[in-house]
Amino acid sequence: MNIQEYISSGILELYVCGALTEEESKEVSNELKKYPEIEKEVEQIENSLNQLSTAAAPYNPNQLLAIIKNKLHLVDNSKTIPIRKENKKTNIVLYIGWAASIALLIGLFSVLQDRNQLRENLNVVNAQKAKMEQQINDAHASAEKKEELLAIFRDKNMVTVPLDGQEVAPEAYAAVHWDKQSKKVYIDAKNLPTPPEGKEYQVWSLTLDPLTPTSIGLLSNFSDDENKVFMLENINSSQAFGITLEPKGGSESPTMEQLYTLGTVKTS
């Protein structure tokens, strides 16, 4: 610890004036016990403040005379005409005391302002640091998720079904990655437009003869998923997959006028 820097920081003046928090005061008290130089500096500050208080106190000679007479048990019945005399020395000391007190207050106020500004700056830095750490964590999590998805899509047991855009959205595209063993499908919906308010996409498993659609789930929270990859369960013997835009919460049967993508499973 650099004792001189600690003394010059202004924290001891704030400690003597009681301007520190309880925790900060405890820290200074601990330093006083460990370092005699700091304890001596605090004593000097306290003595200086006491001297300033004494010098700044108003001097009343009449009051002092009355106290002396009272101590000597003297009674003065004569009437006297008080003559006011200027005590230049007393006035000079008084002015110096007030000037020193004002200078000390200005110094303490400046130190307090500096400390408050430092605290604000520290809070800003800590907030920026926390935000940056969160961004780094999010980036790592996103990278890990992408690596996991790549491993899934490259699995030799995975059946990939491309879903082309239909009349309502010719430019739309999606892909279904179907793991028949685990009975899971991964919907890659990166090239689907963001659904409007109150709507969401619903995925259908289809058998073609006769045409029978079965819902396997919704692509909920579409805008929140950065990768736009959704995992759903599929226990059906699917021959095709389709995605429609439905009211939020889904529908019992697909709205064919809102069929966005459709694709058939290739038979081996």
UniProtKB/TrEMBL annotation:
Pfam families: RskA_C. GO terms for cellular component: plasma membrane. Residues 99-255 form the Anti-sigma K factor RskA C-terminal domain. The keyword Transmembrane applies. The keyword Lipoprotein does not apply. The chain crosses the membrane at residues 92-112. It comes from the Bacteria. This is Anti-sigma-K factor rskA. It comes from Mesonia algae.
